[in-house]
Amino acid sequence: MKTGKKKQGRPQPTNPSDSSHPSSDGLVLLSDLARQFDVDKSQARRYIRRLGYVPVKCRTKASGGQLCLAVTQADAERIVAQRKADGFLQAGQPLERRHDGFFYAIQPEPVIMPARIKLGIATDVPSRLATYRTIVPDAVCLKIWPCKATWECAAMDAMTREGCRHVAGEVYDCEDCAALVRRGDAFFRLMPGAELSAAQQSGAQQSGAKQTFSRG
Questions:
Q1: Greater confidence, 188 or 88?
Q2: Kind of pairing, strands 89-90 and 140-147?
Q3: What are phi and psi of 107, to 5 degrees?
Q4: Mean pLDDT within 5-20
Q5: What is the C-alpha separation between 129 and 207, in angstroms, rounded?
Q6: How would residue 63 be classed by pLDDT, with cut points 50, 70 and 90?
Q7: Domain boundaries, the chain
Q8: Contact yes or no for 213/143 (Cβ under 8 A)
Q9: CATH code linked to domain 27-94
Q10: What pLDDT score does 39 carry?
Q11: Hey, what long-range contacts does 108-115 have (CB within 8 A, 24 or more apart)?
């Protein structure tokens, strides 16, 4: 009769939260960031990936052991800081709900870095442009389009799908800015009500941005 040590197998998980995926300890769930940003999880995921962060999968007791997406605490702090720098958070609350606004394409430094483009959405683009001009006085807005919150990420993806390199946040380097604007025109032509009225164009011009807005 052979004797010897019994071969020990790999320990099996005793509950759903024990797995090859990390627990939520030390992580911030993407769903929590989405609530803080006042967007849905898919928008939060696209925003986080656009910043260059890759969420990891983890299991939580709250989800009954189901896989969730999360980022490290340090990455979450950097993501929130970038969100604030983009003008969307103040004291953990959204400055503006991302709807009934305008999608814009701004050149922060048209002379020194003409290929650099800042894309985004705001309810008051002239005020947003004025804010940028306190840092980069030569900033100009190439064009604006009426935009709903649910269109923002799709619009950004459509406009930057070719000839553009992601720099950081909502900033890109584009080989052909005119082509980027044309792709924006093509995208927003497909969206209902995405046209600027004469009154809206006039209001933008009277606000001091007369030379920066292209007519839709």
A1: 188
A2: unpaired
A3: -95, 110
A4: 39
A5: 11
A6: low
A7: 27-94, 101-209
A8: yes
A9: 1.10.1660
A10: 73
A11: 108/132, 108/136, 108/139, 108/171, 109/136, 109/138, 109/139, 110/138, 110/139, 110/140, 111/138, 113/173, 114/177, 115/173, 115/174, 115/175, 115/177
